[in-house]
Amino acid sequence: MAADRVAGDASMQTVVVRRTGRTGRRTRRVPWGRVTCALLALFALSTVFATATPAQAAGSASPSTQAAYLATRLRTNPVYVTDQLPREIPRSQAPAFATLAKRTGVPTYVLVLPEQDLGGKGLLGAVHDRLGRDGLYVLLDTSGVTDAVAYGVRAPADDAATASLYELPYDAGPLRSFERFVDVVAQGSGKAAERAAAAREKYGESDAEPDRMYVDRTDRDNQSFLTGALLTGVPLLILLSISYVRRWRHILLKVTGRAKPDSRRTPEWLASVLALVTLAVIVVTTALTFDQTTSSAAVPPTAADVSSRVDRVSAGLEQDPVYVDPEGPQVLDSRQLSHLHERIRKFARSDGGGPVYVLLVPQLSGDESGGDPEAFADAVHAELSKAGKAGNGRKDDGLYVVADTLRGDIDVLNFGLRLDSGRLYAGLPESIVFGDDEAREAEDHLLGERLDDFMTFLDKSPRTTEPNTTSDQDTKAEPIEGNALPPLFSGDFWPGLLVGGLGALLVLGLVAGVLAIVGSVLRRRHSLPTASESSPLQAPRGPSLSYLRTTADDELGALSEDFVEADVENAGLAHRARAWDCFDAAMLLIDGDRCRLTEPDDAGDPDEAENAAGGGVDPATLVTIIVLARAGRAALRGEAYEMCCGLNPLHGPAVVRHPVRVSAEDRRRRRLPVCDACRDSAIREPGAVHTLLMALPAPPDPDGGSRDRVPYDVLESPLSAVSDGIPRLIDAVRELAGAE
To answer: Any residues with CB less than 8 A from the CB of 297 and at least 6 apart, and which?
Structure first.
């Protein structure tokens, strides 16, 4: 920083030497007394220019430096807030900064400016040298305190700046950052050093940082969406899942044979109460958690804040067609500025030419125009037109050139000159509009050379017969919206309600899938019931031979008992006739001897006994007996049982015929009768329905090979007629018995 001040002093000395040199040449003809008077007059004149108004200083041919301009502002008021950031730091906040500055206990000078190159290092020293007053100098931008130096006073500037940097999140805002800075300064050097060291240790060498203080509108939308999803998803999931699990548990207990009355059964209304309580908890919790009301630390600007920069620039253009922003580093030297003025005057005198206004002003997202150079030029043009309408002609008509000293871009707008606005808007070379690589890397973006190239392009531009305007309508800046966040229960809250309901159904589907897997595992561990009304729930796809023998014996025995105990009046003669036909056909398959169903069990393992003997009742015949027995029992109960499930006859009655694929290799479909469960599977997963087709043990291999399973409908058995209905199955059994 001291080096910067030395450099500044050196530059001032250079100016003095040059002026002395020019004056020295005059000493050959002028007495020394006159020389001294001339020097005093020159010094007085330079002082007048240094203390001139901003418009006059910026519009002069020899622009004042950034430090000199800021020193002039601080001489009037120790707190200077830029007018270039009304959307983020309105100038009306200057009294708040001044109130905090008084708490430091030392003279404090505050500069609130747009972000500076290299963080503004060296700027405070240059301003102090020109102001000539000791005190605590503080530089802030939109992020907070960026530099602080104490000149001639005791204040822990560095430690306070470090503490404010690390202790606060990046979105705390400049006013809160300055408040933390002031608090640390007021604590004295010892405590300030401790806080700075603790902050560096906690946040300096790690990726950790304090939590954000504000959320933006996108965050609020996400919060609203999440709240809506929770409000419908969680209570609905509680209602559906409790009801589903209760029914699943009841069915599972019935399947496993452990169902029994439970006097301590949970009341059904308890699920509704739990859902309502959960709903209330979610509402209260989200309202307390997502309690943010603002999206940033910025306060709404006043009308004067918004118009301040436009007024300043407009006033400067009334004095000089080239306005150089005095708050930032100067990008044009005196020679370039003088040459640009000469080119502008030459163009104004040319045929079809006119005024050219050059605005060397940075374009920032926080300014009144939202960083839009066209909106900024329109606003300046509108302000100039208020004074330009008086007298003959329009003083505001002309070519407005906005040169962004921050990024280096050049934008041109035409108001009333006989130039092709389209060519100016789209025909400017990129080397002028954006610059080349060298221009982008240069600190001044080579704006002097590029503006000179632009004037050359302008001189060669063809003239039109009528005046032109760049835009048919005024370009307005984006409105300055307040930082108040929308209510939590608004916006994306409503779509969240819908998604929450869909999410609850999805989770319920996953729960149902898991419970189905658990139920399948549990069913395999328990013997399956023989009651026909529960048969669709316990029919395996690949039943074992022992299972088929036991089930066939149980079902046939149950049909015998039901036939004897059936009520003739309720069953009816037709139903009793059907039941008798089923019983008769089943007995034909075993030659009237039920003992044949269990004979191999006496020899040990059923499968091994049958393989060894080569006899016994084959699996297809056992399935046929089970189907006939269940159909007969259904007839005695007065239930319709005309069709049997063609995918797995053990599923019980069919509800409809449906086209299904019964083979993974063959894509052709067969129209088979299917039960309710198989129909749902065929609709939901048509490509996997072949996995439901019942497979039975294949006949023994004559060559002694291993036995595999095959689809039941490829075996030579009356069971292959099951898809045509129970009557056809009975006829197929009788035909087989007659042939034998």
So the answer is: 171, 172, 173, 174, 175, 176, 213, 214
Residues in CB range of 13: below 8 A, 6 or more apart: none
**Residue 209: which residues within 8 A CB-CB, separation 6 or more?**
169, 170, 203
The SS3 of residue 445 is coil
SS (H, E, C) 350-384: CCCCCCEEEEECCCCCCCCCCCCHHHHHHHHHHHH
Token pair 């003959």 is at which residue? 392
Decide: 145 and 165 in contact? Cβ < 8 Å: yes
Which of 316, 470, 302 minimizes the C-alpha distance to 384?
316
- pLDDT tens figures, 602-612: 434 444 444 33
670 sits in which H/E element? strand 670-674
Q: Residue 262, exposed/middle/buried by CB under 10 A (0-12, 13-18, 19+)?
A: exposed
pLDDT digits (tens, 9 = 90+) for 68-118: 999 999 999 999 999 999 999 999 999 999 999 999 999 999 999 998 876
Strands (DSSP E) along 42-195, which ranges? 79-81, 108-112, 135-141, 144-151
What's the token pair of residue 596? Answer: 């044949």
Closest CA to 455 of 580, 356, 542: 356
Q: Which residue has the tokens 């739990």?
A: 274
d(CA 283, CA 224): 11
